[in-house]
Amino acid sequence: MEKKSAQREQILQEARRLFSQKGYHGTKIRDIANARGILSGSLYSHISSKEDLLFEIASDGAEAFVTAIQSVANSSMTPTEKVRAGLAAHIRVISNHLDVSRVFLHEWHALSDERRDIIQQKRDEYEMYWKDILESGVQAGEFVISDPKFARLLILSVANWVYNWYQPDGELTPEDIADRFANVILFGLRHSE
Amino acid sequence: MEKKSAQREQILQEARRLFSQKGYHGTKIRDIANARGILSGSLYSHISSKEDLLFEIASDGAEAFVTAIQSVANSSMTPTEKVRAGLAAHIRVISNHLDVSRVFLHEWHALSDERRDIIQQKRDEYEMYWKDILESGVQAGEFVISDPKFARLLILSVANWVYNWYQPDGELTPEDIADRFANVILFGLRHSE
DNA sequence: ATATAACAAGCAAGCGCTTGCATAATCGTT
DNA sequence: AACGATTATGCAAGCGCTTGCTTGTTATAT
Predict the structure, then answer these.
(1) Average confidence score pLDDT of chain A
(2) pTM of the model
(3) Which residue spans traverse the membrane (chains A, B) (predicted)?
């Protein structure tokens, strides 16, 4: 009564949409059933609880972000290039999986304590890759950073906040957006390139 | 049966705490009553609906941010100084009114359409002040910005995201935090300080 | 004497989820 | 190809509880 099935996948899709749009607590199990055209009880042939849906979506989000940054971190780019590519990868995940990203970045608080901890671990893992990128940039002499923690925090803030304003029908590609942000981050307002 | 009264203010305080902590839909009217040591029905001697509480808190947040940026915008500082002071003002609002800020920046989505529009207008007003600061910086020759919209978006992203990680018992003052961010924003990773 | 703010009780609606049953698709065995 | 047996998926009904909020009444403070 679980895992892969076309119906289950479509239920997940509606859950993503609704959790992203109205929040976890704001979405009722009947809303999801309704969107699939079945009764709420029938959902439970495919899922075992509402919270399981949230956890599965949040986990998918976590994995998407970690996978994206890994391929950048493991590449042979210079730190400067990695900042550009990492930003682009992050924003690409958001643009390609907007609902999942919103749930992962916004609704994960509604999880139970243990499950929230699991997601938190993934977040920490993700941030660690950025820490490495920035540190290697300092060691290579490319970056002159007085406080590395705040440089990382700035990058992650900008990258995460994208889910609040990104419009899928906008003109700019994720790479365009990343480049514009990277220009400010790398050169600053007073010496922008 | 409304407006100022010690009890009403304390109800608002609990609502701020709970909305901030568990979200609007995650907070039940009985939770608030319980925190005040009264029954849920007794709340309605002081408020007229749960959503009114949310709207009042969100409106207070909006006003706090707008007021803070106004005093910076109307000052005689240089644009560079205004960026530092504006960031500090923003972060000061968050640190001094953490719950209100979280509700204003995170939970306002739960409002009805009309009331969400009212809050959105306040957000737009706030952003306009930043737009002016950046534009005057460009005209004064202090900033070299290729895409002003993204410079503004970057600043607001960093400033807003603070509510996600700020710890009141941390060592750094809002001004410390603002300075560290401003250093990156003004000079970039490649030419910091 | 009047106004205020609390309680006790509860309403109608909604909540996540379970149960018992019907229909149909899928299967291994002839 | 035909068979009964198994499994998957939905509906109908509803359970026990919670939701935001209302009502009528009482205690207290001015």
Answers:
(1) 95
(2) 0.94
(3) none
